[in-house]
């Protein structure tokens, strides 16, 4: 009787011990991990695939812009961009805003006018907020102010031809001749055209004398003179003037002056040998430019001026009226100014 009761108890005890032993075993996956590294392996993360971003697209706003009496219309049609320039009076300006219409193409972060390349000029256009920047041959750009939104219904036949064409397009208005204007305003190295004798006299003045080293082709020296004077109180009153004349009765002068920028309109600025110089224009009632001027911060207050008047011994009072060069050409002459040595 007692032996019969012990058998189940022994079996139950064996089953209990086996169960405890099983619950104390290390999991198989944990054992495998410990055997290989003795540490838990971190989760391997793969790098995300690079995100493809589209190239930055540049554009010009279809609008009409102006600075003074110069206007330019920008027109878009799909991926095609064209411009049309006008000026008042007609035919006054040779570059960019002359009476021309042409296609534009993108290069880096700006647009380039196709047609001007054959004339040896590089015209670039870039949006600047609401306004338009136009640069000539890599010089400081002119800023054309937003005037009004363009009206496609008022596009000229020439502008529509440009938009509908798929080839390089460039066309001048009837009677507008680029060759004459461009040739007369191509810069040349001149050495300021002063003779050794004239240089020697300028070097005797107690004030620095400045002259351009670049001038438009065809310009000639018409006067170079200087005077050493003093006021009654002993202050220096020395002065000089150097006058050049070109085709189409254009003129450029560098002269000491007592005047300033009062009454003139700020048009641009340029970095020169003498620092940053502001450029001003004197505009007529129709906004055409009568003259362009800038002032150097040197003793004698030298002024570079184009337009207004120029020395002429045959004219009443010894001066005659003359026209300014294109402002782009003026800027290049301004940058070429250096001391006469």
Observed structural traits:
341 residues; alpha+beta; eight-stranded antiparallel β-sheet; 6 helices; 18% helix; elongated; disordered N terminus
Describe, in plain words, how this protein is organized in 3D.
With 341 residues, the protein is of the alpha+beta class. It has helices at 2-23, 28-36, 157-164, 178-184, 196-203, 327-335; strands spanning 63-67, 70-77, 80-87, 100-107, 110-113, 123-128, 131-136, 142-149, 170-172, 187-189, 210-211, 214-216, 220-227, 239-245, 251-256, 265-272, 275-283, 289-295, 302-311, 319-322, 338-339. The N and C termini lie far apart (139 Å). β18 (289-295) and β19 form a beta hairpin. It is built from six helices and 21 strands. The chain has an eight-stranded antiparallel beta barrel with strand order 1-2-3-4-5-6-7-8. Strands 13, 14, 15, 16, 17, 18, 19 and 20 form an eight-stranded antiparallel sheet that branches. Strands 10-12 form a two-stranded antiparallel ribbon.
How would you summarize the topology of this molecule?
Elements: H1 2-23, H2 28-36, E1 63-67, E2 70-77, E3 80-87, E4 100-107, E5 110-113, E6 123-128, E7 131-136, E8 142-149, H3 157-164, E9 170-172, H4 178-184, E10 187-189, H5 196-203, E11 210-211, E12 214-216, E13 220-227, E14 239-245, E15 251-256, E16 265-272, E17 275-283, E18 289-295, E19 302-311, E20 319-322, H6 327-335, E21 338-339
Antiparallel strand pairs: 1-2, 1-8, 2-3, 3-4, 4-5, 4-9, 5-6, 6-7, 7-8, 10-12, 11-21, 13-14, 14-15, 15-19, 16-17, 17-18, 18-19, 19-20
